[in-house]
Amino acid sequence: MNRLRVPIARLLKLSLRDYPGKLCSKVYVYGCNFRCPYCPDTDLIHNQQEGSKVLESDVYDHLYRVRGYVTGLCIGGGEPTLHNGLLGFIYRVKSLGHDVKLDTNGTRYKRIEKLMEERLIDYVSMEIKAPLERYPEIVMSKVDMDSVRQSIRLLRRGGVDHEFTVTMIPGLLDGADLEEIAQYLIGSKRFVLQQLTLPGRHCPELEDVDRYSLNEVRAFRDRVAPYFGSCELRI
């Protein structure tokens, strides 16, 4: 029986874009506490008990084979910090000599803090979903906003390389929303704007929504770039 401590849905063996400055592999884990209508990975929302899963041992075997030219593992989802087995999984990955990047929504502040204290993560990408007062509306779930704020403060204090990301969604987020987010995060080291990914959306209200154009996203980037050390696009 496949007894997983971390329920891994997929393993991407090589990624050129998920870990800044590194060739990496990426695992996608099941389970999320948000229901974002623009989510491109709706199959990961629930902690699936049936269907295709990836053994942790398969991940370790792959990382052992590619060590030397793939130097990092990105852990995304879903929301990886929901799972109690995350620390043990990362301990094993680190023992194989790989750096670890965590993609998170920041709602499990204590777990992120523990991972940092144990020096288990080398890079954190935290997605900011909206201006803080609009979170429940955008993620369509109850949110522990104190934990989100604590995670932001924890990352901004340093101790681990990190970035904050925002996905720009027509009809949900506009330039004024982005400006409010940027003012809250002013002075952060690295800020990334992402275009909406169209496949996988599960909200009927967004079925006919197009992405912001590249020129529009560039204009958003230019608007908030002065607030940050680095402001980039991810398209």
Attribute tags:
TIM Barrel, 235 residues, globular
CATH class of the domain at 8-165: Alpha Beta
Count of DSSP strands = 8
Main pleated-sheet profile: 8 strands, mixed
Strand content: 15-25%
Instruction: Write down the overall geometry.
Output: globular
- What separation lies between the terminal Cα atoms? 39 Å
Assigned CATH superfamily of the domain at 8-165: Aldolase class I
- SSE pattern: EEHEHEHEHHEHEHE
Uncertain spans? none
What does this structure look like?
The protein is an alpha/beta fold and 235 residues long. It has a domain at 8-165: TIM Barrel, CATH 3.20.20.70. Helix content is 29%, strand content 21%. It is built from seven helices and eight strands; from the N terminus they run ββαβαβαβααβαβαβ. The protein has helices spanning 56-66, 86-95, 109-117, 135-139, 145-156, 175-184, 214-224, and strands at 8-15, 24-29, 72-77, 99-104, 123-127, 161-168, 190-195, 230-234. Strands 1-2-3-4-5-6-7-8 form an eight-stranded mixed beta sheet. Helix 3 runs parallel beside helix 5 (145-156). The longest helix is centred in the middle third of the chain and has 12 residues, at 145-156. It is globular, with a radius of gyration of 17 Å. The model has no long low-confidence stretch (mean pLDDT 91).
